[in-house]
Amino acid sequence: MARALSEAVLGEIARLRGLYPEPRSALLPALHAAQEEAGYLTEAAMEDVGRTLGVPLTEVVSVATFYEMFHLERPGRHHIRICTNLSCYLNGCDRVLEHLCGRLGVRPGETTPDGRVTVEAVQCLAACEEAPVLLIDAERHPRVSPAALDDLLARLA
Amino acid sequence: MPRPLLTRHLGRPGRERIDAYLETGGYQAASTALRDLTPEKIVEIVEASGLRGRGGAGFPAGRKWKLTPKREGEARYLVVNADESEPGTFKDRTLIEQDPHQLLEGMLIAAYANQVHQAFVYLRGEFFAGYDRLRGALADAYARGYFGRNILGTGFDLEVVIHRGAGAYICGEETALLESLEGKRGFPRLKPPYYPAVKGLYGQPTVLNNVETLAHIPHIIALGVDGYRAYGPPVLYSVSGHVLDPGVKELPIGTPLREIIFEHAGGLRPGRTLKALFPGGSSSAILTAEHLDTPADFEPLAKLGSMLGSSAIIVMDDTTCMPAVIRRTVEFYRDESCGKCTPCREGTIWLSQILDRILLGRGRMEDLDLLDGIARNMTGTCFCPLGESVPPSLRASLRHFHEEYEHHIKTGACDVRPVAAAGA
Ligand SMILES: Cc1cc2nc3c(=O)[nH]c(=O)nc-3n(C[C@H](O)[C@H](O)[C@H](O)COP(=O)(O)O)c2cc1C
Ligand code: SF4
């Protein structure tokens, strides 16, 4: 049967499975690994994950859709997560979000038509001392003003 | 004021490297524990220290460890709650990023004290930097013989797996966390019987502690009960919102709110006055300026109908629109409700619709009773504390700021500048 995931990722999932007393515990880490490869989770990829861990596809899908970080559709090449919870709200995140969406021509939750950036308004990122704060991919940026945001956007490939 | 204990070395470049940690006496408490102390003795010391869980519920750590059955030949687990997502809370992330070995050493001692040989760190999925730091630190600690087999030649074994979550606030709740760690959706379990200590991961006894709770442990062992308690005992307050110097503030527990905000967090911006605050994350009932002399401790805050919770103090000055703040918190719980029970799933939707209406200038006077009524009906009827987190703040805001809600309804407008410029 055709495999969606590379040998490397399948090997990584097999390694993850061995870390836990019960294989199913490796499901979240395995989905992270699978998602890293393609940027999102295709049904075929989830089938591979399920097969490797002995979890039925319906269960894999039901778990994947419960968690906000798993994408079942292709997101942008870059992912901007901006916190809109209390401390960021008190420090002007709405202005930053509005500016961001205006610059990119998208609404929160959307991806730019060229597939470059996905913008997501997220819950408290546990970095309230840096409010307003956002993540661009894996990197956190503190005290972001609309002007600082322009600089950050200009640097995105 | 005593010197900081848990945060003494935070912010030092290279602190995540094991040599830097060893240089300041790191892993000495763990060696003492493993070599010279019995597991029972450690549990006794931790109990005598008075340390209470720092994840929010404040359960005494020593008592939790004592309650964990230690039957011969039965699997037991240690699970670290590093899912920190209570709005306003950022102490755990800071400890993980800036002094990861302190947490690892606390885990090692906790595992030995509970005779656990397998530990998991349930790390919040969005903690990308924290994951790298902790993973690197753990690899170094393994290489130096602090984890793995026959640790420090004592015959004690401990394996640690760092397990990344994937974005779900409810997974911070301990039983939902365990479901998630078993590879399922994060739905809370029924308590009883599923108290993690007795029926936890895979149905086995499980010691489940918060990151900060475990970071206290090496200091308790190193200083002894009296030496440790001389520091307050200490606690980490996460202070944010409208203060000039937000951050993690390590202070003796029970420091008055006024002192925390005005002496340690830089106070407010010039010309501003304090309007309200959350003393323990967005799940704690809001307080006002009249409560500023309250000690930030479990009992005094509970007496006010609020709580210390995760000791996250969110400060709001007079430029804050309270109905807007409450709408934001209600939206958070609405979005993060796992959907398992009706009062929480539906109640949060109704509340946010009514708040929307009021803030859009289409509210009616009856809406205020409606809000209060829905909140009352949610109280005591939700399956887990997430749903129960909503009513206290909403109802407190209706009590303290009724006129502000009325003003929105009567005029359709807001009198305060709703969003303050950052640091302006
Ligand atoms: C909705 C909800 C979210 C929670 N989130 C966290 C969290 O992010 N981190 C945490 O340590 N505890 C959290 N808790 C508390 C845990 O259920 C548990 O009490 C705690 O992790 C136990 O550790 P401790 O005794 O060391 O505090 C949460 C509780 C609830 C009800
Ligand atoms: S109270 Fe809310 S989060 Fe808790 S079980 Fe019910 S629906 Fe889920």
Automatic annotation (TrEMBL), chain A:
It holds the Pfam family 2Fe-2S_thioredx. The keyword Lipid biosynthesis does not apply. Keywords: 2Fe-2S, Iron, Iron-sulfur, Metal-binding, Oxidoreductase. The keyword Lipid biosynthesis does not apply. [2Fe-2S] cluster binds at residues 83, 88, 124, 128. PROSITE patterns: COMPLEX1_24K. The gene is nuoE. Binds 1 [2Fe-2S] cluster. Gene3D superfamilies: Glutaredoxin (3.40.30.10), NADH-quinone oxidoreductase subunit E (1.10.10.1590). Its EC number is 1.6.5.11. Its cofactor is [2Fe-2S] cluster. This is NADH-quinone oxidoreductase subunit NuoE. InterPro entries: NuoE-like, NuoE_dom, NuoE_N, Thioredoxin-like_sf. One of its GO terms (molecular function) is metal ion binding. Belongs to the complex I 24 kDa subunit family.
